[in-house]
UniProtKB/TrEMBL annotation:
InterPro entries: AceGlu_kinase-like_sf (IPR036393), Asp/Glu/Uridylate_kinase (IPR001048), G5K_ProB (IPR041739), Glu/AcGlu_kinase (IPR001057), Glu_5kinase (IPR011529), Glu_5kinase/COase_Synthase (IPR005715), Glutamate_5-kinase_CS (IPR019797), PUA-like_sf (IPR015947). The gene is proB_2. Catalyzes the transfer of a phosphate group to glutamate to form L-glutamate 5-phosphate. Substrate binds at S52, D137, N149. One of its GO terms (biological process) is L-proline biosynthetic process. HAMAP family: ProB (MF_00456). This is Glutamate 5-kinase. ATP binds at K12, S169, D170, T211, G212, G213, M214, R215, T216, K217.
Length: 370
């Protein structure tokens, strides 16, 4: 992970580094991060900064109320006011221009908007402007939010084809136990595959300032490494860690890229889109699908769950409920439900020479890992 060998990196900074007291911005820990970014610029390594902290930054601007932390509407207002505070805090630390990008899940859901994110950031980087990305917490709803900036940083890294993702945390990396409760916890320096056991170890560890714990960081690392992007979780409080990065040393936990990474379209479909419904298919059809044979017809549909229209993303499951694929629907749920449930559907389907490709867009389909 020698930064001088990287053309483009994404750095994610958490709320506990922006606003360590959870009540307004502080440059206490940002100085070393900004210095690292400046040194990257001097080496012609382009940087995209994903910065949390708008809610924590804006909290001090609002009167104290009992439901201050639980009121969603108030949090949105805090995010709106705190975003300018956060941008100002970063701007003071650089002698080159910055730009603000506020994103939601909807911006990744539609492929055209996903490509637009890439084009915008490309133009900023080509003009030596530092993109500072955050989720648009002021307007997001449950349906439109990514949920945490760890996962957002992985999607941004994929969009800009980053050479590395660096997640700055309040801990050194992934431990084999929670280091706050277990003094014998050992740092895991290298991870080649993020197994269910590792996800279980991650639990919900993290600070109380932000929304993302260690589990979301592992989710982000999985997203990035499956796109072929090496990822490091490191302690953002430790200035020496950034010096180690510049020297090519691992300062935390290094997640190595997948040996067979997903291509950009498969990755976007797997992680950038949210499914609106599900199709359950026969065991024979599921086995064919897992082998990459998508020549399936309507008769293979066992059940239809949810409401969706043509063009929506759906999950394909086997009869045991295991997810096997994700794809864009070519037919809506109403038609498919008719084929499954109508008394005449067997005759109707038997007279149709329709392949499953008319149900799913085979050009926009990817197999899923459980």
């Amino acid at each position: 992970m020698r930064i001088s060998n990287k053309n483009r990196i994404v750095i994610k900074v958490g709320s506990s580094l922006i606003a360590p007291e959870g009540n307004g911005c502080s440059s206490r820990y940002l100085l070393s991060i900004a210095n690292f970014i400046v040194r990257c610029h001097l080496m012609d390594t382009k940087v995209v900064l994903v910065s949390s902290g708008s809610v924590a930054a804006g909290r001090s601007l609002f009167s104290d109320t009992p439901d201050k932390c639980g009121n969603v509407t108030l949090k949105k207002a805090m995010a709106a006011a705190g975003q300018t505070e956060m941008m100002e805090a970063w701007n003071k630390l650089f002698d080159f221009p910055t730009a603000q990008l506020l994103l939601t899940q909807y911006d990744f859901q539609q492929h055209e908007r996903f490509l637009s994110i890439r084009e915008t950031i490309e133009n900023l980087l080509n003009n030596d402007i530092l993109p500072i990305v955050n989720e648009n917490d002021a307007i997001t709803t449950d349906l439109s939010k990514v949920g945490d900036n760890d996962n957002l940083s992985a999607m941004v890294a994929s969009a800009v084809a980053a050479d590395a993702l660096i997640i700055c945390s309040d801990v050194t990396g992934l431990y084999d136990a929670d280091p706050r409760n277990n003094p014998d916890a050992t740092l895991i320096k290298d991870v080649h595959k993020i197994s269910p056991e590792l996800m279980q170890i991650a639990g919900g560890a993290g600070s109380g300032v932000g929304t993302g714990g260690m589990r979301t960081k592992l989710e982000a690392a999985r997203k990035a490494t499956r796109r072929g992007i090496p990822t490091i979780i490191m302690n953002g409080y430790d200035e020496n860690g950034f010096n180690e990065l510049l020297q090519g040393t691992n300062p935390g936990t290094m997640f190595h890229p997948a040996t067979s990474p997903l291509d950009k379209k498969q990755h976007w479909l797997t992680y950038g889109t949210k499914a609106r419904g599900e199709l359950v298919v026969s065991e024979e059809a599921a086995a064919d699908a897992e082998q990459g044979n998508f020549q399936l017809d309507y008769r293979d549909i066992v059940d239809v769950n949810g409401e969706f229209t043509a063009g929506d993303t759906i999950i394909v499951k086997n009869e045991q409920g295991e997810r096997i694929a994700k794809a864009k629907a070519e037919s809506g749920s109403c038609l498919l439900q008719f084929l499954v449930n109508t008394d005449n559907s067997a005759e109707f389907r038997g007279n149709q020479n329709n392949e499953f490709g008319q149900v799913l867009n085979r050009k926009e389909m990817t197999l899923l890992e459980e």
